[in-house]
UniProtKB/TrEMBL annotation:
The lineage of its organism: Bacteria, Pseudomonadati, Bacteroidota, Flavobacteriia, Flavobacteriales. This is RNA polymerase sigma factor. Residues 113-163 form the RNA polymerase sigma factor 70 region 4 type domain. Residues 21-87 form the RNA polymerase sigma-70 region domain. Gene3D superfamilies: 1.10.1740.10, Winged helix-like DNA-binding domain superfamily/Winged helix DNA-binding domain. It holds the Pfam family Sigma70_r4_2. It comes from the Bacteria. InterPro entries: RNA_pol_sigma-70-like (IPR039425), RNA_pol_sigma-70_dom (IPR014284), RNA_pol_sigma70_r2 (IPR007627), RNA_pol_sigma70_r4_t2 (IPR013249), RNA_pol_sigma_r2 (IPR013325), RNA_pol_sigma_r3/r4-like (IPR013324), WH-like_DNA-bd_sf (IPR036388). Keywords: Sigma factor, Transcription, Transcription regulation. Belongs to the sigma-70 factor family. ECF subfamily. CDD domains: Sigma70_r4.
Length: 181
């Protein structure tokens, strides 16, 4: 069965087609959920919510552009909606951008699993902005619109995320070199 036929069957609420679509894209979308979630269990919940949204909104897909890109956008928006409901960004609304310091994170000796783990440990508002900007290449303007914050807050949260990650990595490297003595 072609992807277009599978999509059409899903639009007609065919549960077998929905199961096939889930099998086809769940692992890719799970990795997207994992980037934006606090932990593995939350990513699983977010994936389920995303697929519910996908099946509810699949009629809106007009066969223009990448279907996988559409799935990813729906998934990211579903996860972000959870955080908007939790009012993650109402806690601190940082408007100052004067104190933003660009921080380069060296990944040379760090595993992907370690990097993913420390990104997941970031406070929600920092993790979401970091992932949207660094990993998914959204602009600060787009992030501000998606998260209902201002552009300065997006920039400030990104800078703070980078600072936290840099400090965490430095502490890790110090601990590693101390163990090798």
């Amino acid at each position: 069965m072609s992807l277009n036929q599978l999509i059409e069957n899903c639009k007609n609420n065919n549960t077998k087609a929905q199961g096939e679509l889930y099998k086809l894209f769940s692992s890719k979308l799970f990795s997207t959920c994992l980037k934006y979630s606090r932990n593995y269990a939350e990513a699983e919940d977010n994936l389920q919510d995303a697929f519910l949204t996908i099946f509810n909104k699949i009629g809106q897909y007009k066969n223009k552009g990448s279907f996988e890109g559409w799935l990813k956008r729906v998934t990211v928006n579903t996860v972000l909606q959870r955080y908007r409901k939790e009012k993650v960004f109402d806690i601190i609304n940082e408007n100052t951008i004067e104190d933003i310091v660009e921080v380069d994170i060296e990944e040379d000796s760090l595993s992907i699993d370690y990097l993913l783990n420390i990104i997941q440990e970031l406070p929600d508002r920092y993790r979401l902005v970091f992932n949207l900007y660094v990993l998914d290449d959204y602009s600060h303007k787009d992030i501000a619109e998606m998260l209902n914050i201002n552009i300065g807050t997006s920039k400030s949260n990104l800078a703070r995320a980078r600072q936290i990650l840099k400090q965490t990595i430095e502490n890790y490297k110090v601990a590693q070199s101390a163990q090798s003595l």
